[in-house]
Amino acid sequence: MEGSGSGKHFILVHGLCHGAWCWYKLVPMLRAAGHRVTALDMAASGAHPARMDEVASFEDYSRPLLDAVAAAPAGERLVLVGHSLGGLNIALAMERFPRKVAAAVFLAACMPCVGRHMGATTEEIMRRIKPDFFMDMKGMLLNTSQGPRPALVFGPKILAAKLYDRSSAEDQTLATMLVRPGCQFLDDPTMKDEALLTDTNYGSVKKVYVVAMADASNSEAMQRWMVDDLNPGTEAEEIAGADHMAMCSKPRELCDVLLRIGDKYE
Fold first, then answer.
1. Backbone Cα Rg of the chain
2. 98-120 residue pLDDT tens
3. Is 84 a catalytic residue?
4. Annotated Gene Ontology MF terms (predicted)?
5. How confident is the model at residue 4 (pLDDT cuts 50, 70, 90)?
6. Which domains, and CATH codes, for the chain?
């Protein structure tokens, strides 16, 4: 899902079990402001043709993003926007292509840091979640070429109560129709590599964390921990009243934040 314009090029990356479809409100707003926008499906997500059991690694899962950044014309500076688990996808792209990225935006996202493996943020989020949080989330084991891999998919109750609780009934319904099984890749070698992210590459890219203030699945305290403790000095923005799916519950406010970021960083 791509559009052209004379401004910045925003590349949007969804979170766990979601796809490019979740950005459907934001994409036309950014295009109307004169920017190019690409909303991507990670492998086995959204309309991507692969099945999750066919995705060998986190790198393969991130391949649509890595390919899109690699293909960006010389001189075109990108604004990467990662939502939720998508923060780890954009972190990998920042490490590989730091000079192609004008700014990286972490929207209620996992934001890793130099010196820790990328899975550390996901592990900490999972550690802080109470058991009753999971409601009708379903776990499963995928038979992959690397052996069994845990996966999960959101049920309608957890979508309505924890992710889309301030979004419309239409958005909740859309999500129940379109979510697919997803993996956190916690045992993946890329996710476990403490030397993966470097100050020279990942650390050199301007980062902005957008706090969804009413997020019922990733608390404000957890979001602030990733900024203040893991990445001190990172710029932070807030969106009042935004649930975890801020692109659905507060699309206009999110668009305004992204436009400010696009104007600020060259």
1. 17
2. 999 999 999 999 999 999 999 99
3. yes
4. methyl indole-3-acetate esterase activity; methyl jasmonate esterase activity; methyl salicylate esterase activity
5. very low
6. 2-129+186-264 (3.40.50.1820)
| Contact call for residues 188 and 56 (beta carbons, < 8 A) | no
pLDDT of the residue at 2: 54
Residue of 53, 171, 215, 243 marked catalytic: 215
**Cα–Cα distance for residue pair 190/179, rounded to 1 Å:** 25
Q: What is the 3 state secondary structure string of 202-219?
A: HHHCCEEEEEECCCCCCC
pLDDT at position 6 is 55
- Catalytic pick among 62, 84, 217, 249: 84
Active-site annotation holds for 48? no
Q: Is the pLDDT at 1 greater than 70, yes or no?
A: no
**Over the stretch 146-159, which tens digit does the pLDDT of each residue have?**
899 999 999 999 99
| Annotated catalytic residue, options 14, 18, 35, 244 | 244
Q: What is the pLDDT of residue 219?
A: 95
- In whole angstroms, give the CA distance from residue 45 to residue 50: 8
Determine whether 215 is an active site residue: yes
Quickly tell me which residue has 């776990």 as its tokens: 139
75 neighbors 178 (Cβ within 8 angstroms): no
